[in-house]
Amino acid sequence: MVQKAFDEIVRELDRIDADAFVHVGDRFDDLLRYFTDFSGPDRDYAFVFVAGRAILCAPRLFGEQARREFGGDDVRTSEHQTGATAPARAIETIREFADAERILVPSHISHRTATALEQHLELVTTDADFGRSRKTPDERAALAEVQEVAQRGMARSESILAETTIRDECLHWKGKLLTTERLRREVNAVLARHGVQDARNTVIGAGPSCADLHFTGEDEIHSGETILLDISPRGSRGYYGDVTRTFVVGDIGEWERATYDAVQDAQDAALETLDSGAGIRAETVHRSVSETLQNHGFEVGDVSVGMYHGTGHGVGRSLHESPSLSSDERLEVGNVVTVEPGVYDPERGGVRIEDLVVVTESGYENLTDYPRRIRPSPSR
Amino acid sequence: MVQKAFDEIVRELDRIDADAFVHVGDRFDDLLRYFTDFSGPDRDYAFVFVAGRAILCAPRLFGEQARREFGGDDVRTSEHQTGATAPARAIETIREFADAERILVPSHISHRTATALEQHLELVTTDADFGRSRKTPDERAALAEVQEVAQRGMARSESILAETTIRDECLHWKGKLLTTERLRREVNAVLARHGVQDARNTVIGAGPSCADLHFTGEDEIHSGETILLDISPRGSRGYYGDVTRTFVVGDIGEWERATYDAVQDAQDAALETLDSGAGIRAETVHRSVSETLQNHGFEVGDVSVGMYHGTGHGVGRSLHESPSLSSDERLEVGNVVTVEPGVYDPERGGVRIEDLVVVTESGYENLTDYPRRIRPSPSR
Which sign, positive or negative, has the C-alpha torsion B247, B253, B259, B261? Predict the structure, then answer.
């Protein structure tokens, strides 16, 4: 998994004419996890690439875990390594292998780490992606696996919605009020049962709260209003899934129906554009979505009613990474992106439909296999 | 919740004679969450404290969430705010209120943020704790709530263990092999069902893998060996819980019994030391554990068999924060710390027993209410 990253490090070192690469961060640093496969401690540890060798420096208490997970050449542990001593450990390790002067570091490395390294070495910072956006077959398989579990979560919520009864215009399930929070917990329990974390990303809106793109609060769910479920969990290897569906229980109003149809058409248009595969500019996908929604009479852009977000983003070890479908970059083979048009009206509700796809030479492969339908059904 | 943090910022600004405080980070930055209560995007956003006002600068798509969650004075959103523009937004916001020259920032702020800020302002970095280690009653309640859910997870796993049958020396449950991974998923589903995230922290070891302090892999569980469960989930407000228990199913061997008794005695000794309450040096707690284990014939320190970790750490919005029970600081009212002696033998297994307690004026309050027993029982 990490070989691609190491190849990219070698290329960057050559390009910049630096002697070694260093990254220091904690378990929440996705780039560090990309380089190491190690989901280490919640304090700083160091990764060093020098003289063709990839070395992880970890506190001793994480030694067994490091040796289990690290995909590089060597794990060095030290009893006294704390977060604060990680830069010193990195310098020691470099010195063992090379008479380095100039080292490359990611630009988001912490200021205290940069200051500590700069006392001994010249730093060159980089915003390079190190090949993250071009997923290998192994990475695609990891993403597909998480997406499959996300869909199980979706199936669970859809069948709960299909089983609800309506009392005083509010959805009830198993005799009790079904709130967005209660529904979210059911979804998250399914994810957990399949070894995947909800990662605080299970967003469920009902009616107006669908327009709040990150609604994780508690809301009643009313008959006739849109119910938007966006599930973006994280698997044990650190890769995310991402799927969104929208439903309505009870009578479907004119706005809800028209919006649903428009968003579904917009997603079709996006996928049709992606049919051309690698080489097209990412923004053409967003443009096809915009045009379709505008043809349906909806506004797109910096608006309060309509579509006010991009069409998609890369997904990998970060939930949001390159490429963005609003950028003018050309799509490449192995890009994994969401395709998620949405239309919202803060007074009424919102509809979003989202799949996760891999860009191929001649088109795309959809990692999502989940029906699109406005009326919830008990069977996937 | 955030008032304490703001008071501490005012104090630090006075002490350092700085004109404003800035922090820039993403949703994974626990200090930023402590200042804001905002669990924002996975890219950088800015928090500014200037002229007595606490201001959050967020991307527009997170505006509703920011207004729902932020505990300060004002939320500024901007359509074009990306991670890279957050420092510029912070500077703009400061300039609106003050003719600032010298600003205070946390030392772990990213190097690129520091570099961007330094083009316009003089930076002073700080490692201050901003009162995080002294929990308010509201924070203690949040911690207690998560701890209660962690205990529900423990109760679930304990009753599963009590229901197991032994076949070929391996534990089986509901007719199938019970692995550490299968058990972990059951625990994590209970956490999710109660609105709490496992946060990738449910560590379950069996026999030798108990000695790997962060074992999240898959292992068979054998009759007679120690089964160590360490559950440290995170609640919706960002506070963690932390509880560990160790069990044995089947015949209990001499080593397992002796080790369990020693660790239980060591925990009792630690709690007895904590009975003196605020004012004692943290390391005296670790010392009482060491002495007790040594009296039982176990080694403590940089050893491969015995206790090779500290006795405890602070818990709050980070799973590991101040104070450490190995430090020479004096404990303060409101410190929330784990008390977790453990003894391990990589050839045989390991025992750890962990409670979470709040230091009070005259002693401590145990946030944990979970039986300590080596033989699993179906009822908590």
Answer: positive
- Domain of B318? 137-366
The helix or strand, by DSSP H or E, that contains position A245, with its residue range, turns out to be strand A243-248
Summarised one tens digit per residue, pLDDT across range A331-363 is: 999 999 999 999 999 999 999 999 999 999 999
Residue B285 shares a structural domain with residue B146: yes
Option in B28, B61, B193 nearest A185 (CB): B193
**A80 and A168 in a common domain:** no
A105, A198, A212 ranked by CB distance to B192: nearest: A198
Identify the pLDDT of residue B81: 67
Which pLDDT score, from 0 to 100, does residue A193 have?
A: 97
Q: What is the pLDDT of residues A128-146, one digit of tens each?
A: 999 999 999 999 999 999 9
Q: B236 and A216 in contact by Cβ < 8 A?
A: yes
| Closest approach of A199 to chain B, Cα-based (Å) | 7
Asked whether B231 and B243 are in contact (CB, 8 A), the reply is yes
A181 with B188: Cβ contact below 8 A: no
For residue A43, the chain B residues in CB contact (below 8 A) are 320
Q: Give B52-85 as a DSSP string.
A: TEEEEEEEGGGHHHHHHH--SSEEEEETT--GGG
Please tell me the distance in Å from B187's CA to the nearest CA on chain A.
9
Mutate to test the interface with B, among A32, A185, A188 (most CBs of B within 10 A): A188
Residues of chain B contacting residue A61, judged by C-beta atoms under 8 Å apart: 213-214, 308-309
Helix (H, G, I), strand (E, B) or coil at B167: strand
Which residues of chain B have a CB within 8 Å of the CB of A114? 111, 114
Which residue, A126, A153, A173, sits at the end of a domain? A126
Q: What's the pTM?
A: 0.97
ipTM above 0.85, yes or no: yes
Reported as a single tens digit per residue, the pLDDT across A79-123 is 766 778 999 999 999 999 999 999 999 999 999 999 999 999 999
